[in-house]
Amino acid sequence: MRSNFVAASDDEAEHGGWDEAKKRRPTDAELQEMCRLIHEAMDAGACGWSAQVLGMNSIQRDYDGTPMITDMLSEHEILTFAKVLADRDEGFIELAYQQTGEEGRPLAPEARQFFEKVAAVAKRPVLYQAVTPNSVHPEQHRERIRWLESCAERGLRVYGQGATRRGGFEMTFEDWNLFDDTEAWREVTLGTKDQRKAKMQDPEMRRHLKEEWDAGIRPTQVAQGSVGSLVVQTKNVKIDIGAESTFPTLPAPVEIGSASYFLIKTRDGYRLLSRVCPHQGGTVQDRATRFVCPNHGYQYDKDGGKCLNAEGLRMKSYVVNVKEGRLIALVPDEKAGNASRFGQTVQQIADAEGKHVVDALLDMVIEDDLATEFFAPTQGREAAQFTTEVLDSNLVVAGVSDGGAHVKFLTAGIYPTDLLIWLVRDEKTLSLEDAHYKLSYLPAHLGGFKDRGALREHAPADIVVYDLEKLEILPSEVAEDLPGGEWRRIQKSRGYNWILVNGEVTFEDGQPTGALPGKFLRNGRG
Ligand code: FES
């Protein structure tokens, strides 16, 4: 299934130029021209339009710290764009609209009423961003679900995008840009690496950050435990381990500093597997068809290091990329200044060192040239009960992939596999049928994809065949495959046997077959 949204920012920038679009609101004539562009895009196949409208206090801003173009959309402009869909009687809208409120951030009545207005004008589905399960303030998501239900009772087609994925962000302060919800943190996380470092060392900026912190003003929108809950992770470095031709037989032992690895080649490419046994730290040996730890006899497969004796154990795996015939591994830096802090939260480090949490964090990242990796857990999403409550509503789709955004911090595209593993297989709080409804049929229905999203005789369908018991999400890794030598984080999965598109197998056991039978869907029409 392929389709397109019209991104409202493209539309505005197209009409007046990027900077101009941020400085003033469009004239009536310009607004009409933007509506014409939405029509043109939808004629060409777009299935609606989407926008983030978070106002001047947007918590995820443009590259220069100013709000995004769409953050500044007025209600009149949004309703004018909504009318385009009513005139066509097709398409749908996806909207993130500013929320305000007291503790637990309840959906403010004004925002709620505005969503209803948009749905009434568009007469088409509106996807509300987002229904986030909240284990600290569960009344928050319950209230939103009740509101969606009341919309449905009144004939308003407002649906919720559920934030149903477990996990969090992996980040360094060299790239991190999602602390835009406080003025001081926004400033510190803007600019080049050197500029950021200079700001982090500036006593005046430190004072500002600490004042904000002590006044309870903290970046919590995407990292709900804020700075103190960041967990220090391993810092990785690139090591050239030799020419590909020097490893004719695999697995091959590889030594880097004091660490020992096995070089293996899997269907996903080369990997280094740490020989430190994940059970209790023994040294894993290479034995015929298996890796074996002599300490307690645990065995690991040679295609990725999965433990064959104990559920959930896996040899630590590191990416190895091939560059001009050389094997370049990305492995933990033994010389990292922060190695002794791995696994601790910033708050724990601050307590141990008797420092303000802001100083503890910034001293640490500066010492490590901003390369320290952190994990920012997403609070409240680990509890199956609350995510199930969200998915129990027939008005909520599973999500959020975030469209693949934030590539250096997030691998949110794992949400379908995570949902099947977590709630269907392991917790058994969601039926397989309900999961497929939320992952496939409901989103297809909202998107206007007619006759798609469910398996029915004579209906077109792309089919995914998987073994629920064997589904597995692999650890996140860095892929250097973006244009301009840029990198992103990715997470692969296992357990998907076949993917069929238009009757042809396009992936078999995770490997592409080379078949490209997909067709572009235009407004749900093939
Ligand atoms: S330490 Fe390796 S099996 Fe126990």
Number of domains: 3
What is the alpha-carbon Rg in Å?
25 Å
Mean pLDDT: 88
Quaternary structure? single chain
3D architecture notes:
- The chain has 526 residues and is of the alpha+beta class.
- The protein has 3 domains: 2-167 and 384-454, Metal-dependent hydrolases (TIM Barrel); 169-234 and 338-376, no CATH class; 236-332, Rieske [2Fe-2S] iron-sulphur domain (Rieske Iron-sulfur Protein).
- The chain is built from 14 helices and 26 strands.
- It has helices at 8-16, 18-23, 28-43, 75-88, 109-122, 138-153, 183-188, 193-201, 203-214, 346-353, 357-367, 384-391, 415-426, 432-446, and strands spanning 4-7, 46-53, 92-97, 126-131, 158-162, 168-171, 231-233, 236-243, 252-256, 259-266, 269-274, 285-287, 290-292, 299-300, 317-323, 326-332, 373-377, 396-397, 463-466, 472-473, 477-479, 488-490, 493-494, 496-501, 504-508, 511-512.
- The strands form 7 sheets. A 6-stranded parallel beta sheet has the order 1-2-3-4-5-18. Strands 8-16-15-11-10-9 form a 6-stranded antiparallel beta sheet, with no helix packed on it.
- Helix 3 (28-43) packs parallel to helix 4 (75-88) and helix 10 (346-353) crosses helix 11 (357-367).
- The radius of gyration is 25 Å and the shape is globular.
- FE2/S2 (inorganic) cluster (FES) binds at residues 277, 279-282, 293, 295-296, 298.
